[in-house]
């Protein structure tokens, strides 16, 4: 029988970090399933999902924890195999002048609608014309079956003017074609 583990990883960025983690995973006959890893402000951070035989899980966890000695902080979480949220996938794009609270306001609207955020990537960068800092976010969301994408768009548009953001919502199936 196999366990699924989710590893959270943080370290000062340097070459070889993925190799350090993946070697421990492979040495314990675990399978690296998927991951999202990136450099953020000089830090290496990410999430990795692995499958491991139940009888090897404790040894794998112990070995991963020992990577702390080389500067890797790894959190180990047993994956809850609960059902994924049902509904239609959509892509949400947000663009506006950077200001505090943007993600909080948008995510609050989504939570009130029972919309689940599957992935979220954001970036602050200088605008092309003005040089003002621009906030960009891209999310893959799951809209519950009882709701339409138009309902979600309408709710987000209600806060867009206040936040001075452009909001675009597209069907994920159409966007991926």
UniProtKB/TrEMBL annotation:
CDD domains: ACT_GcvR_2 (cd04869)
Ranges that cross the membrane: none
Top-level division of the source organism's lineage: Bacteria
Domain ACT: 6-82, 91-172
Entry-linked InterPro entries: ACT-like_dom_sf, ACT_dom, GcvR, UPF0237/GcvR_regulator
Pfam families given in the database record: ACT (PF01842), ACT_6 (PF13740)
PANTHER family: UPF0237 PROTEIN MJ1558
Name of the protein described by the UniProt record: Glycine cleavage system protein R
Organism per entry: Pseudovibrio japonicus
